[in-house]
Amino acid sequence: MSKKKLMKLFSVVVITMTLLLTSMPFQTEAKGNENPSKMVENIIKNKNMKSRILWYDLSANLDRLDTPEEVAEIVAKTAEANINAIVLDVKNRSGFVPYPSEFSPHLSESKNPTYSSYPEDYDLIENVLREAKKYDIEVHLNINTFSAGDVSYQEGPSIDNPDWQTVVYEVNRIVTDSKGSTYAIHGFDKVRLTDELIVYTPEKNAESPANQWGIDVVVERDVVVDIVDQVTVGKQVVPVPEDGYVLSGHGKARQWVLDNLSIGETVDIASVEADLKPIGETAAPAAFMNPINPDVQAYTWNVIEELVNNYDIDGITLDRARYNNVYTDFSDLSREKFEESIGEQITNWPEDIFTVTFEGNEKVINPGPYYQEWIKWRAQNIHDYFEATKLFLRELDEDILFNTYVGSWHPLYYSEGVNWGSKKYNPEYDWAADNYNETGYADHLDFLMTGLYYGDIMIEDLNGEKPYWYSVEGAADISMEATQYDTFVYGSLYLIQYQDRPEDFKRALRLIEEKMHGVMLFDLVYIEMYDWWDEIEEVFTKKTKSPHSVPGFIKQLRS
Question: What SS3 class is residue 370?
C-alpha cells in the first residue's frame, strides 16, 4: 500500500472511531457468523453514520465550475454545509468531458455553443480534487455510461461509431398531408424537444405552450387554418381550437412543415407507423449505446481505467448504465444473443416481443409470447455488466468504491432494463418472469443512490390516489425493501421539485436520514439558484461519516 493511501486509511480510522465512540456501538469487522445484511440494517440507527452527497452535474454547472476560483468557492460552501462527499459528473450524456482524455472528446471540441466555449486547457477534475482534499471531502467521478452522443448536433463517440448505437423500435402516430408526405408525431401535450413534432390538444391546453424556437400549425376539423412560424415572427399566443389541435414543430419538424403544409390543406394524424432505426436517426436527445456490444463495453472500461489511473479519487459512479427505454435494443446483435439465450428463433421480430397500439393519444404495449423472457434478458445484461465492471475496478484498485444512481421506482424500472434490487427480492410483477430476481445487482455495489423524485413527502399526502412509492417516504421504503440490505442505500432528492418550498425540502432531508443510510442532493445548480446553503446547514448541523468510507464495513459488505 502506498504511503498516501496508508495515511488516508489512518485518518479514516481515527475519525471513524471518534464518531463511533460518541454514538451507539458498531463493529467494523465481521464476527463469527454475523450477517453482513444485519450490519447494513443496523447502521441506519447510527446518526453519526450518514452519507451526505452533493452531485455536481457537468452540463448544468458549466459556467459555475470553469475556473479554479469558482471551484474553490463552491467546494468551501459544500464543506461548510457538512456535506462529506461529491459526485462530480465528468462525462455528460453526449460523451464529452472536461479533462484531457485519450478516449473522449473535450467539451471545447463540441459543435454545441454551450460546450464549445469551455476552456480547452482546463481540467475540472484536478481542480475539484485539490479543493476537496483540503476539507477531507470524498470525490466520486460519474460517467454517463451508455449515453455518449448528441443526436441534434450529430456528435459524440456513439455518433462517430454508428454500430455502437441502440436500435429503436419506433412506433409513432404520423401526420400525413394531402400529397401523402408524412412526419412522425413524437408525443401529445408534452414539452417539445429538438427536432420534435408535438400535438397540443384542447383537453390539455388552451394555447400552445411551446417556446418561440419552432412553428405552430392550427388545425380545425382536419384543415390547416393558420401557420405561425415563431422563429420568424417572434413569440405569439397560438390558441388551441376546441374542435382541433395545434401541431408544433422544432428543427427538422419545423422544416417539414414549411416544405409541406399550407393554409387550407387537409391533414390526418390517425395513421401509425412502426420502424426499427438506429437512435442517431431519431429525435432522441441522447444517442445511447448497446450495452452488450463488446466494443461499447471496452470503451466504457477504457474511460474508467483512465480516470482511476490519472486521478486520486474515492469512487466511480455510473449513471445511465441502462437501456434508454423499453423500445431498445432491437439490433441484429441483440436478436442473435436473445435467440441464443432462449434456444429458439424469433419468427416475428420485434412483434413477438411486443406490439404497440394507441388508446386515444397514449401508447400501449401489448406483450408478445417472449415478452417476460425479453425483460429478464435485458436486466441480466445490465447485471452482467455491473458484475464485470466491479471485478475490473477491483483489479485496477480495490480501494476505489463502486456505486451507481437509479430511479427508486422499482416496479417500473424494468423499462430501462435494470433490476437494481437484491437477488433475494422477488415481488410478483405481472411483467416479470418467475426468476427475474436473479438479475438483481445490489450485491455488486459499495453503495446505491436511488432517486426519491417526488413532491409529496409522506405516504399519507397521496390520499390513496397513487401507489405508496410515489412519495419520498414510500420511495425510501421500497428502496430499502428491494435491496434487502445488500448494500448501503442513499435517498436522492431532485431539488427543483421543492422550489419555493424550503420547509418541505428540510422535512424530506430529515426523513431520509431517519430511514436510510444517507442523502444525495441533485443538484448543485439548484442550491445555488435558490441560495439554500443555510437550509442545508439547518439540517446537517454536525459532521457525519459515510458508512461506505469505513474500511471494516466495506470489507464486511464485500464478503
Answer: coil
Place of cell 476539507: 135
Tally DSSP H helices, then E strands, for the chain: 16, 20
How many whole angstroms separate alpha carbon 375 and alpha carbon 395? 31
Closest CA to 95 of 314, 293, 320: 320
pLDDT at residue 73, as a whole number: 98
Q: How far apart are the C-alpha atoms of 483 and 280, rounded to whole Å?
A: 35
Residue 171's DSSP bridge partners are: 274
Residue in the block written with cell 459499495: 446
C-alpha cell at 7: 495515511
**Cis amide leading into 551 (omega within 30):** no
Cell triple for 99: 479533462
Tens digit of each residue's pLDDT (9 = 90 or more) over 297-317: 999 999 999 999 999 999 999
Low-confidence stretches of the chain (pLDDT beneath 70): 1-34
Question: Torsions phi, psi of 420, nearest 5?
Answer: -85, 5
Q: How many other CB atoms are found less than 10 A from the CB of residue 542?
A: 7
H-type alpha helices, 285-432: 294-310, 332-342, 371-396
Give strand pairing partners of 490.
Answer: 449, 518
342 vs 332: CA distance, rounded Å: 16
pLDDT given at position 34: 61
Q: Please report the sign of the dihedral spanned by the C-alpha atoms of residue 164, residue 328, residue 321, residue 369.
A: negative
